[in-house]
Structure formats: C-alpha cells, structure tokens
Write a structure and sequence with these properties.
Elements (H helix, E strand, L loop, with lengths): L3 E4 L2 E4 L3 H11 L5 E6 L1 H7 L3 H8 L3 E4 L2 H11 L9 H12 L4 E6 L4 H13 L2 E6 L6 H11 L3 E5 L4 H12 L3 E4 L3 H6 L7 H5 L3 H8 L6 H15 L7
Parallel strand pairs: 3-4, 3-8, 5-6, 5-7, 7-8
Antiparallel strand pairs: 1-2
Helix pairs in contact: 1-5, 2-3, 2-12, 3-8, 4-12
C-alpha cells in the first residue's frame, strides 16, 4: 500500500523500494501508467511550468527522489519517509527482481547510449529489449509510434527536463503499461557514467558531488536554494495527508 500526501501543491507517495517494485510488478499488463521520481528541482520548475505540474499531478506513482524531498516531508508533514526511491535505483531493482518479465524500451541519451544500455542490461539482468532510441529527436510522433509498436511493458525515458511532460502528453499513444522518467540512468546502464561512491549515497551527499563536480550543473544549485526557501516559507501550512 502507498500513502499519498501533497507537498508544496504536488502529490507524493511515501513508498519504500519494496512497495514501488511491487506496484510496478502489478501494473506490467495494465493500462498506461506514469511514474515520476520527484526531486526539489522538479518542484521549483513546476511552479513556472503548468505542463510539468499537470504531469506530476496526474502520475499514478510519485516517489521521493532526493534528500531535499525527504527533508521537506519531515519539516512540513511531520512524517518520516521510508527512503529515497530514485530513478536509477528503481530501475536497477526492477531489472534485478523482475528481469525476464520485462520488455524494455530504452529512450534517451546521446546517439549510441540507449543501444549500449539495452545490450548491457540484457546481458546482465536478462531483460528483453523491446527497442531503443536516442534522445536527440524533433519528430515526437515518429518516436512515439516506434515505442507503441515495440510491445514494451516498461519504458525508460531519459530525456532530461522534458521527460515527464513527454510521457504525460503521449501516454495513451505510447500504450506502455509502465513509463518512468529516469534522467541520466541510461548513461549509468551503458557504462558511460558511474554513480557517485556508495559512501556518498549512504550519507545522502550524492547530490552535492554531482552538482559540485560538474560545472554544467552549477545553475541547478539555485533551484535547490529556492526549494529550501519554499519549504521554510510554507512550513507552517504543513501538507495535506
């Protein structure tokens, strides 16, 4: 069972990894469903992007991704969330536990990354590869039809900031039972990038290493600050449980 609250106007399901994996397993033959892994940046962007806000609001499962979200739940809701359920962790757990039950379409990354992620995942986890396509496309209709025709039951979309809106806009046409926006997960699966060290994840400092170690991510630090200010400004209103 998942418990849903509303945090800063957006839904959030206080699930642990076990619950999230079980939820996906139950939906693999069902109607199209979208999973959003909610992080502080997304909360801030949704304030200025109604399409993103709607995508999150109408997602069937919204997991806590990021220590900032866990902190906000404690601060505003007075609740102790079980754990983070990030896109990369959820993907790896699904592959490990459900392996052969999955027909996966890998969508995103630079040309060659999705193909490499698919091949490595098939070898390591035994998942069936329904298809793959890079994230540098303008013709959305063509890509949507490719996914639809693939017969995938799991779509991993690593399309950066547009992934949630893309999945929401095309969810019925994609006709995939489970769709997840996974950010840079395909790079990890492909072996192009490595995750932060285990100690940083245990200490919940992975975000700091990612932002501090990549100058391209430095502007995102401003969003993290705005998120903290939002939580502090609205903490008295709590959250809807």
């Amino acid at each position: 069972m998942k418990r849903r609250v509303r945090l800063l106007g957006l839904p959030l399901d206080l699930v642990d990894m076990e619950t999230a994996v079980a939820w996906v397993a139950d939906r693999l033959d069902g109607e199209p469903a979208q999973i959003v892994t909610l992080n502080p940046e997304m909360v801030v962007r949704s304030r200025r992007d109604p399409r993103l806000a709607r995508a999150v609001a109408e997602a069937e499962l919204v997991t806590p991704d990021g220590v900032g979200i866990l902190w906000a739940v404690r601060r505003m809701c007075g609740l102790e969330p079980a754990e983070r359920v990030t896109g990369v962790d959820l993907t790896q757990e699904l592959f490990t536990r459900l392996g052969g039950e999955l027909r996966v379409f890998f969508l995103g990354g630079r040309p060659g990354v999705a193909e490499q992620a698919a091949a490595r995942s098939q070898r390591r986890y035994g998942v069936a590869v329904a298809g793959f396509h890079h994230g540098y496309f303008d013709d959305e209709a063509e890509v949507v039809e490719l996914v639809r025709a693939s017969g995938a039951n799991l779509l991993l979309a690593g399309l950066g900031e547009r992934q949630e809106v893309f999945l929401h806009r095309h969810r019925q046409r994609l006709a995939t039972p489970v769709m997840i926006g996974v950010g840079g997960t395909l790079d990890v699966l492909a072996g192009v990038k490595k995750r932060a060290p285990g100690w940083s994840r245990r200490l919940r400092l992975e975000w700091l290493l990612r932002v501090g170690g990549d100058p391209r991510r430095w502007p995102r630090a401003g969003r993290l600050l705005r998120f903290a200010l939002l939580v502090l400004a609205e903490r008295q209103s709590g959250c809807q449980k």
